């Protein structure tokens, strides 16, 4: 996530960090972690359920504010322990919770087949479904259910701006159970709570023909019923599925490396900003492909409006608040690798995607980071770069450190190892965690493996403990 479009402007690192600090402190809001639910802890359990496939068919109303239909998800138990239940994460309910009788929850699931649902928990963002019998290791099963999605009246990743609808984190997805148990962390607005394994999606979106519908995956739009169209999307090995809807203007170009960049922008979005976004996205997708590994999804959609707050990343689709100076497009494109391809638990370790994406952003723009660590202010000796969203939510004024201290630490690591060694480290690390899940411990181990120098003091100095 990129709260502020200033990140993509060609400013010095120090100036960017100061601006970011001031603005983040102005907009940050306290987020509660009340309501967290945790399952029993398991030693050595593999992340499960995995190899999921989502088949989704939704139909929208006249302006894309409401979508309803049927969803099916099949999955495997990768753990050596029987799977007796699964959880659906209804992240779209995070901001407003369970709703009221007059205004029901934004995302509702009903008519479940293949399991028995409980009442939604964790502020209506986690729906437990008991399986009819324990699912053995390596076995597959499926669930099917009706889903109803109502876009909230707010300008947010799941929200709206004028005639345009954003459906980020709107589709129910499976929670993850690993060695720590079920990950049922609360929703946070300050950053992200999301943790998902890669899955395949086959999505059919039926909508009025006047609406353009950018979406995760390779898409095509076909004629539907009278006055309607159907957008079909195929997305393999992605961690989530997002889409938008509205009377967008559109343009498509292909990068020299063969990636299709599809641009969607609202009328009134500054033309120069749209041009800069398109130019930077084309350059960034190929550059990061060379540095980290070829972009595997074939297509990426840029969704641009003038009023969206900052930017937000999804596999193959980014939402961008755009000014005349562009947006945070490079940072969001970098997230295709740091969160998308190399996954992480964004609630427990937000630095693993945000700091790495911002480091890539800084390198792309050529910011001078040689003295940026000296500009970092730590409020006390206990705070650390690797804090979870539980910590940052209690200290929202410090959350900027993930975006400022984090890339500074990685830039210092590059100077410690040498540019060539750092490049080799990152490319190898992405390869070793391709479509997998990273951790701070794994990154530290990988970094130590490329040098004879003891990096212990480096980690301590840079609060990567």
TrEMBL record:
CDD domains xref list: M1_APN_like
Residues annotated as domain Peptidase M1 membrane alanine aminopeptidase: 295-366
EC supergroup of this enzyme: hydrolase
UniProt cross-references to Gene3D superfamilies, sorted A to Z: Neutral Protease Domain 2
SUPFAM superfamilies noted in UniProt: Metalloproteases ('zincins'), catalytic domain (SSF55486)
Gene Ontology molecular function terms on file: aminopeptidase activity
Superkingdom as given in the UniProt entry: Bacteria
Keywords attached to this entry: Aminopeptidase, Hydrolase, Protease
Protein EC: 3.4.11.-
Protein name, UniProt field: M1 family metallopeptidase
């Amino acid at each position: 996530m990129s709260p502020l479009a200033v990140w993509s402007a060609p400013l010095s690192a120090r100036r960017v960090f100061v601006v970011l600090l001031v603005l983040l402190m102005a907009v940050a809001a306290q987020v509660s972690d009340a309501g967290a639910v945790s399952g029993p802890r398991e030693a050595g359990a593999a992340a499960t359920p995995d190899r999921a496939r989502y088949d989704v068919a939704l139909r929208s109303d006249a302006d894309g504010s409401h979508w309803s239909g049927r969803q099916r998800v099949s999955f495997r138990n990768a753990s050596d322990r029987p799977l007796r239940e699964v959880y659906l994460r209804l992240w779209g309910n995070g901001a407003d919770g369970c709703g009221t009788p007059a205004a029901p929850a934004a995302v509702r699931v009903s008519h479940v087949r293949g399991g028995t649902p409980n009442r939604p928990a964790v502020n209506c963002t986690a729906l437990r479904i008991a399986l009819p019998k324990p699912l053995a290791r390596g076995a597959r099963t499926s669930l099917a259910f009706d889903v109803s999605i109502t876009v909230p009246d707010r300008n947010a990743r799941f929200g709206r701006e004028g005639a345009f609808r954003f459906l980020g984190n709107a589709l129910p997805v499976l929670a993850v159970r690993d060695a720590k148990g079920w990950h049922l962390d609360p929703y946070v607005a300050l950053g992200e709570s999301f943790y998902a394994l890669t899955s395949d999606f086959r999505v059919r979106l039926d909508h009025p023909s006047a609406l353009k519908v950018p979406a995760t995956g390779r898409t095509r739009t076909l004629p539907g019923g009278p006055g309607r169209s159907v957008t079909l999307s195929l997305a393999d090995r992605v961690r989530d599925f997002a889409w938008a809807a509205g009377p967008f203007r559109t343009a498509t170009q292909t990068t020299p490396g063969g990636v299709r960049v599809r641009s969607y922008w609202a009328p009134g979005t500054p033309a120069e900003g749209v041009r800069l976004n398109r130019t930077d996205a084309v350059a960034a997708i190929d550059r990061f492909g060379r540095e980290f590994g070829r972009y595997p999804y074939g297509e990426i959609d840029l969704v641009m409006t003038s009023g969206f707050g900052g930017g937000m990343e999804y596999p193959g689709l980014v939402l961008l608040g755009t000014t005349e100076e562009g947006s945070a497009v490079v940072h969001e494109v970098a997230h295709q690798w740091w969160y998308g391809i190399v996954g992480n638990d964004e609630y427990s370790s937000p630095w693993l995607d945000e700091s790495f994406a911002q480091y890539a952003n800084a390198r792309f723009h050529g910011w001078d980071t040689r003295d940026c660590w000296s500009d970092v202010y730590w409020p006390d000796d206990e705070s650390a770069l690797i804090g979870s969203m539980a910590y940052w939510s209690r200290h929202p004024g410090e959350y900027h450190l993930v975006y400022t201290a984090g890339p500074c630490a990685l830039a210092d690591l590059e100077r410690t190892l040498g540019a060539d060694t750092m490049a080799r480290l990152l490319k190898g690390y992405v390869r070793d965690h391709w479509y997998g899940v990273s951790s701070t411990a794994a990154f530290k181990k990988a970094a130590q493996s490329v040098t004879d120098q003891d990096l212990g003091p480096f980690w301590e100095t840079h609060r990567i403990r």
